[in-house]
């Protein structure tokens, strides 16, 4: 059961919803509808499932409908048509049709939101800002103190708890927003461009922190961004929106390798593919290498080949100077011991960036394995393909 499941969802801003739905069904575009009756189509026909523990990034240009879709999840926007199911213990709630009391329950126990503009109250201390939601639930300072301090510790702001927000930097203020969302202990987190007001370095740092925190907290996160690099970095799934519609949804690597239209291609063209592509997607598989009883030739015309032992298992890399047995390397492992002339066998899941670093350090092709068996090799052509 998906934690959030959105089906054929339409959001309309304006006074003529019934008419606008008809016009949408007749195939009128967003701008035609706007001209006809003044209504704005915020979201059109969105369908997407977000599983527990996923970070789903809604990505697209300004005005494409990302925030409109995000804000329907906790009922901040009315749903004109369609379904939006939120898992709640052993039941599911349809936000499109539930009553006010159920919506209030979802907002306090299931879904929290982090905004771009921090939304901190300047007259309250950092700790009081973090405790705001708990106080709204009727908790006293004595009751919330421990909980709030734990969350401030989590985001590295414990020592700053008694200061006012304006005494903190932008990045720190956004951490207060994060701590406030975590304090509500809801499983679902909605994040509306939370880092986009920050300068690039702090932004990148907070993205890293979010990824680290997520490993511990395992929330289900819907995250809005207009930056594909950010989406690729933090998203386990990405949904790309154009003109109120989801035009492509999938794993980051799918989006980069198979953009579905020119709009997505344009985003992809401005991103660094090495950050997201995996070795296995670009490697030259073993069955494309010429084979003889003792080896697989990597490059026709050169002496470079993969050497097999008597059992047919690939055990070494032969270059024109030497035959070198493989050294295993694990993803996220240290590169310190990797030296010139070393033959490295890495998991097929290796990121292209790491693979390229190994290639640079060893001067040799990187071989890839799955379940202990060599499945392919990354040649220089494979790196060029990734880059272009
Ligand atoms: N409350 C509202 N009332 C009227 N129109 C709205 C409202 N909220 C959003 N819209 C309109 O819906 C469309 C989609 O806006 P939305 O904020 O969802 O886009 P977005 O992709 O999040 O853009 P941005 O990146 O600029 O925040 C826009 O045309 C916007 O003007």
Automatic annotation (TrEMBL):
InterPro entries, per the entry: AAA+_ATPase, ABC_osmolyte_uptake_ATP-bind, ABC_transporter-like_ATP-bd, ABC_transporter-like_CS, ABC_trnsptr_Choline_ATP-bd, P-loop_NTPase
Keyword Ribonucleoprotein (UniProt): no
Annotated keywords: ATP-binding, Nucleotide-binding, Transport
Family: Belongs to the ABC transporter superfamily.
GO molecular function: ATP binding; ATP hydrolysis activity; choline transmembrane transporter activity
Cross-referenced Gene3D superfamilies: P-loop containing nucleotide triphosphate hydrolases (3.40.50.300)
Provenance organism: Proteobacteria bacterium 228
GO annotation terms (biological process): response to osmotic stress
Highest taxon in the source lineage: Bacteria
PROSITE patterns: ABC_TRANSPORTER_1, ABC_TRANSPORTER_2
PANTHER family tied to this protein: GLYCINE BETAINE/PROLINE BETAINE TRANSPORT SYSTEM ATP-BINDING PROTEIN PROV (PTHR43869), GLYCINE BETAINE_PROLINE BETAINE TRANSPORT SYSTEM ATP-BINDING PROTEIN PROV (PTHR43869:SF1)
GO cellular component: ATP-binding cassette (ABC) transporter complex, substrate-binding subunit-containing
SUPFAM superfamilies: P-loop containing nucleoside triphosphate hydrolases
Pfam families given in the database record: ABC_tran
Residue ranges annotated for the ABC transporter domain, each copy included: 28-268
Protein's recorded name: Choline ABC transporter ATP-binding protein
